[in-house]
UniProtKB/TrEMBL annotation:
Domain PA residues, every copy: 134-218
Cofactor(s) for this UniProt protein: Zn(2+)
Name of this chain's protein: Peptide hydrolase
E.C. number(s) listed in UniProt: 3.4.-.-
Gene3D superfamilies: 3.50.30.30, Zn peptidases
Organism, as annotated: Phascolomyces articulosus
Secretion signal, residue range per the UniProt entry: 1-19
Listed Basic residues bias regions: 479-488
Family of this protein: Belongs to the peptidase M28 family. M28B subfamily. Belongs to the peptidase M28 family. M28A subfamily.
SUPFAM superfamilies, per the entry: PA domain, Zn-dependent exopeptidases
Residue ranges constituting the Peptidase M28 domain according to the UniProt record: 245-458
Amino acid sequence: MRVLPAIASALALLSVSSAAPLEERGPPAHALSKQLVTRVKLDGLLRHTNAFQKQADEGGNKNRVFGSKAHNATIDYIYNFGVQNGYETTIQYGTFPYSETIASSVSIVSPEVETPNVPINLMTFSPSTPEEGVTADVVNTGNLGCAATDYTDVTGKIALVQRGTCAFGDKAAAAGEAGAAGLLIYNTEDGELNGTLGSILEGAAPTGGISKADGEALIKLLEGGSAVSLNLKLIEIHENRGSANVCAETKSGNKQNVVMLGAHTDSVVAGPGINDNGSGSAGLLEVSYLFRNVKPNNAVRFCWWTAEEFGLLGAEHYVASLSEEQINDIALYLNFDMIASPNYFNGIYDGDGSAFETAGPEGSAAIEKLLIDFFAGQDAKSSPTAFDGRSDYGPFIDVGIPAGGTFTGAEGLKTEQEASWYGGKAGIAYDECYHAACDTTENLNSEAFVLHTKAIAHATAIYSDSTETVNGVASGRPGKGHGNRGKAKFTANRGTRAPCGSTPPSVQ
């Protein structure tokens, strides 16, 4: 990564709070932790999230989706903050595929039914129908639609197939080859079907996913003997957008044993993304501010990733750019994505795999333990959260870098046990504004926000001094302790990349 000016016009230097600087080197790790943790204040965090909200409000679309004016302003803000606070601050530019659903609907034109509109999710990378949609008869293929020969008499018609066996992209390509005007894939289990074709496929049929119940209802109509006509409208834009990652690294410390922390900066199209993930971005910014005068044993690198919401694209780009030596120079990676959910729980990534049977690379269990112990020391409960690679730590564990972090919940529902531990309401989503327009500055739980930022501060203090529990490199010891990690893939079956701990869009 090279030092470059921010991608939009430089902002004025940001005002910062006047807390006295910490000592430059000297306090032992636990003393430094105490100093940092004590100095984490809500006002310090809110100055950043308020800035993100203002950027979204002034950007024209009420979001901070990557490549937008508002997101470029977020990148500028972070870059200038790093420079102002004395870090080696760098920007890594890249071009990433962007897609946005403009229209997604299907309705029964004939026969006349009580509820003609069928809920549908456009599959990412689907070709678009004409603007007015396609009106055609639907054909139940009676099979899984994995080959062109599975489609009989579908030319100019909308094919209906069941999920399963092969990838959605294979089904879409086969349907297109057979001349289908559209493809509906119905689920094999309860609930809606979100999916992706994996990439843009030339000649594929416009494709959407519907529920098992709606698929079976269409089949029942067809079994009545009369033709069933649908109007299918699927419109998605595809383009490449320029964006950037930002990293701010301490000028001192062992550069062969770097402690990395990361959070993504972008939002979805639907809203400004202040919890997801303005909260994690703000937590890193504030800890970097409090840490600015420390001279650590190990170099500390704070990074903010672009395009997470489109498949971890920024973090993937960063890791792919690293040489084998640079990979081996990273002691560990800590990820913070959604740390202020309104109906929160204290989630810690399951580094040892004891809860979800998917452990991180060697050393991840030690990171999990450090965070569990921290929450216990704050008289707070904690719960394991699946370490499945579906946030920006994914590319790091892919190359064997120990990883961990915290998470306060997305669209999942709080359990009775969690409600008894953390308060809030059981049976309600951790964040009811997840990926929605209401994810604003009003959507932050102050208690969770401060507590999880304190966890960031604690981990930064401890690991900036020594990563011995993670990779064997003790305080003050030069060189590397983790050997040649290389680019060998970490073997975890995570499926398709998906943002923010959410259920991923399926590929089949």
